[in-house]
Amino acid sequence: MSQSRSHLVLVPGFAGFDILGSVVYYCGVTEVLRKTDTGPYQGPLSVHCFPNLPTASVDTRAHALLRWLADRFRQGVFHENAGRGQRDGLHLVGHSTGGRDIKTLMLLLLAASERHQRVYGVPAESILESICSIQFLSTPHRGTNLANYFLRRRPLVTGAAALLHWWLRSARPKDASALARHARTLLRTLGYSDGIFRAALDTLGRFHATDCDGLARAEARGEYYNVLRWLLHVAEDAEVFQDLDPLSSAGQMQLAAGQPDRHPAVSSVGAFPRDLVGCIESARQAGKASLLGAEVEDDLSSYYKRKGVALRSIVTRAKLDPGGAFLGAFGIFYRITADITNPEVVTALGPPCAVPRLDDPTRLEPLTPAMNDGIVNCVSMVYPDATQSFLVDADHADVMGHYRFIGPEDGDGTDPNYGGYDLFQSRSTFDQSQFDMLWMSIGSFAMASDRFAGVAQRRPVVSSGAPAGDQAVSHFHAETPESEGGAE
After folding, report:
1. Contact call for residues 107 and 293 (beta carbons, < 8 A)
2. 189 and 215 belong to one structural domain
3. Of 15-19, 120-124, 213-217, 279-283, minimum mean pLDDT range
4. Boundaries of domain holding 162
5. Do the Cβ atoms of 162 and 155 come closer than 8 Å?
6. What is the residue-averaged pLDDT of the chain?
7. Are residues 176 and 127 part of one domain?
């Protein structure tokens, strides 16, 4: 009998991608998991990166994730054979908006499973029953004030993306790369080293290969067209701003699904209720299933508990140094996120609370609506409650692995061509040891909640010095989904 495996599926958030230009979204994660004990079973763990859509609605992104998972069940990457007692365990990790995508995915799966439907050719039950744990990193469960701010300025974002897309299509890749080299030289002369600009210029620099090697030229063309496609997505679909607006996320179930003004309760029943299934189906057809998450999240978390799906959230918090110099993008975004002038937004984000620290659960840290990580208000990240949410002092990009500049030669071990960037340069205290601790904790939580893994089935973890073929952790990058759709 073949051995069951555990799969950690990493779902990126806003501006989502697996690899874009010179940036790997989850940088260094696989390397940490390779060198650490992955839990009590000490078994094989596969890491998969879902190439998300950048700024599409949460509902569209959730359907893209659903199809991506179904594809892997059909291909046998994720194994399910309940009749012989074999099943791989799936563990979903969503950063930022990726966490909202996962919650909407679960809504779609629950409704389809209750009706015994197939999604993209795979029984919904096969996918749903394989999910063992869900972990949220910096997820705006109740939205973020930053989205409320940019929702009113969405044409500026889409217009900028369209303009950049037009310029790149008009300019030759060789010219774009040359411009990037000159800009890098100028910024070094001026002593300016903002992480986001450095990543953007490094990406432009990859559009033209100086080598005459055919593979290098082909890869450069691929980089160029991947960025063009990403910009086109941003220019033509930025519905995510509405979904992440706190005022859009709260109390919209009746509007989205056309149901009576009531709150369906599922905590007292053994199966997902038919009335809520119909509510979700109506919302799905309207493309607004994502709006149901905030309305029914308490009942859904109880449902997950009965199904054996482990939940927890990582809350990230960064502080603005009042005596420090201008902090580039972080300073701008932090102030916008903290400056909540609308009392309705304050209420929608959630009440002040106290959560335990990840590195010391006995120590509680108070959170207020104004506190944030540069992108998301901290109280919005608390889910399903304060006891299952844990605080890490980090900015929004730190937990992705972008807390310092890492040269390509010091990358995550999966590809020597990619490095990491301190994207927000928030001066947080987050460092390599805390990054290791965070992702060791994520790996251990996943393995401890894998209800399909038996100790007798598991082989020991191979140390980081073992040959590549014997490593306990394997990493899979994935192709970008080309189309968008719904469940069948």
Report:
1. yes
2. yes
3. 279-283
4. 154-240
5. no
6. 79
7. no
Instruction: At 105, list the tokens.
Output: 């995915």
10 pLDDT higher than 80? yes
List the single range of 62-66, 226-230, 393-397, 416-420 with lowest mean pLDDT: 416-420
How far is the C-alpha of 10 from the C-alpha of 65, rounded, in Å? 11
Instruction: Report how far apart, in Å, the C-alpha atoms of 332 and of each of 68, 328, 394, 422 are.
Output: 35, 7, 17, 16
Q: pLDDT value at position 315?
A: 98
64 and 198, same domain (yes or no): no
Computed on alpha carbons and rounded to an integer, the radius of gyration of the chain in Å comes to 22
> Is 147 a domain residue?
no
**Cα atoms in the Cβ-side hemisphere of radius 13 Å centred on 88:** 23
- Nearest residue to 195 via CA among 392, 327, 371: 327
Is the domain of 37 the same as that of 19? yes
92, 188: one domain: no
Q: What is the pLDDT of residue 263?
A: 39
Domain identity same for 114 and 232:
no
pTM of the entire predicted model:
0.85
Tell whether 258 and 193 lie within a shared domain.
Answer: no
**Does 263 lie in the same domain as 116?**
yes
Split at pLDDT 50, 70, 90, the class of 461 is: very low
Looking at residue 305, its pLDDT comes to 78
